[in-house]
Amino acid sequence: MPFWEKIVSLSPVATFINIVDVLLVWFVIYQLIKIVKGTKAVQLLKGIFVIIIVRILTGIFHLDTLKWMMDQVLIWGILAVIIIFQPEVRRALEQIGRGRLFARTAMQEEEERNRLVEALSKSVNHMAKRRIGALISIEKETGLTEYIETGTPLTSTITSELLINIFIPNSPLHDGAVIIQNNRIAAAGCYLPLSESPFISKELGTRHRAALGLSEVTDAVTIIVSEETGAISIATDGDLHRDLSIEEFEARLRRVWFGAMPDQDSASKWKWGGRKNG
User: In which domain, by residue range, is 15 found?
Assistant: First the structure.
């Protein structure tokens, strides 16, 4: 076969160059997809994909009139895309000029982490000052789908305003846990398993027992705001870190959620209810 003969006849250097060429093309496509992900351009790409499929089918089944129409759509569609998405095209060209097209992903991830921690910190601080009870669990490697299904699905962006409104007393979703999955609020009003450990302090309520119960069976991170005292706590890996200041809360949340380096605030670490772990 001529194709395979051509492949075999290529020198090792030419083969290596072709492989690198293909990998670079896929890398560029991947980066472009990440740039348009979550924007209105995604719907446009879906529409273009459908048009291309229809164009191929018209050629296979010899539908000449429809084929001509699809050709016109594709020809003039390029101009329409440039006009409709002029701001996005300009922004992408500016990023190329600044050398930020491929560095954008890491920067965006760091910005997103900061935004998530800030939203949680702001909402927790607000609720702690007003003694509004709250229970927020963050999924890590172990899936929490079975617990998400017990609540009301939201699939919402994480904002401090939304979290505060969910836990306002007597609101429809305040009783239960909010579960965060893939950096979004997956559901609210969820039921978590209660810890059956005999070592839990009697002063801890249902929220703390639920947070510890979930941390004993998963690697999830659970944030608790006490309704009685307004104290802020974090439960993870079967440990309960109680009475955290807002600064300690932010530092610990970054560490257990995003894997930051451990700090020296071991004095705030408590094992199950009142006993220092040390």
Answer: 2-102
CA distance 127 to 162: 12
pTM: 0.61
Residues 6+ apart with CB under 8 A from 120: 136, 158, 160, 163, 223, 253
Based on the fold, state whether residues 126 and 224 are members of the same structural domain: yes
Query: What average pLDDT score do residues 21-45 get?
Result: 73
Same-domain status, 151 and 257:
yes
Structure confidence by residue, pLDDT tens digits, 60-119: 888 888 888 888 888 887 777 777 667 666 766 666 665 555 555 667 778 888 999 999
Nearest alpha-carbon partner for 210 in 144, 132, 276: 144
Of 252, 253, 246, 254, which is closest to residue 126 (Cα–Cα)?
A: 246
How far apart CA 153 and CA 209 sit, in angstroms, is 23
- Considering only CA atoms, give the Rg of the chain: 26
Q: Which residues of 107-146 are buried (b: 16+ CB within 10 A; e: fewer)?
A: eeeeeeeeebbebbbbbbbbbbeeebbbbbbbbbeeebee
Q: Which of 10, 72, 85, 76 has its CA nearest to residue 45?
A: 85
